[in-house]
Amino acid sequence: MFSHIRIVLVNTSLPANIGSAARALKTMGLRQLVLVDPKIFPSSEATALASGASDVLANAKIVATLEEAIADCPLVIGASARSRTIPWPMLNAREAGELSRIESEKHPVALVFGREDRGLTNEELQQCHYHVHIPSDEEYGVLNVAAAVQVIAYEVRMAHLAHKEVGNKSVMTFSTNSAWDEEIVPASDMEQFFAHLEAALVDSGFLDPNNPRQMPARMRRLFGRLRMDRLEYNLLRGILGRMQVMAKEITQLKKG
Amino acid sequence: MFSHIRIVLVNTSLPANIGSAARALKTMGLRQLVLVDPKIFPSSEATALASGASDVLANAKIVATLEEAIADCPLVIGASARSRTIPWPMLNAREAGELSRIESEKHPVALVFGREDRGLTNEELQQCHYHVHIPSDEEYGVLNVAAAVQVIAYEVRMAHLAHKEVGNKSVMTFSTNSAWDEEIVPASDMEQFFAHLEAALVDSGFLDPNNPRQMPARMRRLFGRLRMDRLEYNLLRGILGRMQVMAKEITQLKKG
């Protein structure tokens, strides 16, 4: 189960934080670390701070973009310190732990953490199905990135332990995916969906590509939180295709 | 209430850990740090890692022995990694958070953390009323001292938040939509949406009204679980309207 959960660190500046994060996740029984475009890696400082978790560093996967890190993940949860212009489905750390536990039984789950100074960008956050916020002090809420990894990984472990004790019943109920009939599509398919959606809206004259305003972000939030399954995905792609066919037909009819 | 809870670090070797611990406790709303015979303090490294929590370091109390640090505390909880020869009353991190919260309303509470390499001595542990253990990996359970402070302080904060909300809503409940920017549309609007969706799919030739199969049900499940807000609702209705306009245009162009 824990083998399905990966910690993704985006653009980390300080090797010490990578090392501390590796140690943090390993103490909680996790093993998978993915580094998106780290400033410096490998580094002796990271190894020193990883302490007994140097194997996690040695096995860490390095990728260039967040897209690559989460491509095969039907559930992506991103750490977010502040509230955004467009609110997103939010989890607290405990809920994130429980949801990760539940879904990791079926498919890969990514827990994503951003840069030391400014976290994840809006664009990156919009690639996540949920945002997780660790309830913190109103005046001083800035957890160190490794500390945030520690808390979330701790909650994953607690959810796992509670689950083992209680049996097959989840301590919390989530409306989505508990016993779904079809596989949930991974992030890479969703990227294709969003590209298709945008193209279809442009073709049909609904979206001005030169002035999209908030629409792409709102569409991302809307369809992203659906966590759609394969059949639903194909249905919606079919509708988008149909819109494009109609737009083309109009153009040709007008010409002819 | 939090003013009654102090974090006590015993014989810490690395200034970095003191700084990180200061930051960790401050992010969770705690403010009191007591250092028992620190190897090096003050130190620029501690200050650097404390980040915005240098006030916690500046106000830290330095004492020579654990006795002094806990002298006025009716509740002392000590972090313990391993099980001891003499079993002691044990709490997990969550229980420690809750107990600290309860008792801190009445009197000072000390949460004590030991040395980086070997924790608290047996003698020190025996000065504690309870031991707290953070459930960790069987093979690799050694949390960094600042990481341990982060987890325990986090549980203190979670206990506090849960307590504040008692009676109406607990922090444990699923909090999607908790701070949404727009009202969620009621069921009656959704009925209009589904009627509109079906009409648009029929008009555009995607849905055969004489043989709809499972599609209406799947669409209901899909869009129903979105819990869409007013703005999203209007956006989607706008797209459906656009589809109908296109279908009409095609019919007219074909006629003309």
Architecture overview:
2 copies of one chain form a homodimer. The first copy, chain A, has 256 residues and is an alpha/beta fold. Chain A folds into 2 domains: 2-166, 3-Layer(aba) Sandwich (Alpha/beta knot); 187-255, Helicase, Ruva Protein, domain 3. In chain A, 47% of the residues lie in helices and 12% in strands. The first copy, chain A, contains 10 helices and 7 strands. Chain A has helices at residues 15-27, 44-50, 54-58, 66-70, 93-104, 122-125, 145-166, 187-203, 215-224, 230-255, and strands at 5-10, 32-36, 61-63, 75-79, 90-92, 109-113, 130-133. Chain A has a 7-stranded parallel beta sheet. In chain A, helix 1 packs parallel to helix 7 (145-166). The N and C termini of chain A lie far apart (60 Å). In chain A, 48% of the residues are buried. At the A-B interface, helix 1, strand 5, helix 5, helix 7 and helix 9 of A face helix 1, helix 7, helix 9 and helix 10 of B.
Keywords:
Helicase, Ruva Protein, domain 3; 7 strands; Alpha/beta knot; 10 helices
Kindly state the number of beta strands of chain A.
7
What is the 3D form of chain A?
elongated
Strand sequence of the main sheet of chain A, in spatial order? 3-2-1-6-4-7-5
Q: Span from first to last CA of chain A?
A: 60 Å
Tally of individual helices of chain A: 10
Oligomer: homodimer
Q: Which pair of chains forms the biggest interface, and how many residues does each contribute?
A: A-B, 69 and 66 residues
State which percent range the strand residues of chain A make up.
5-15%
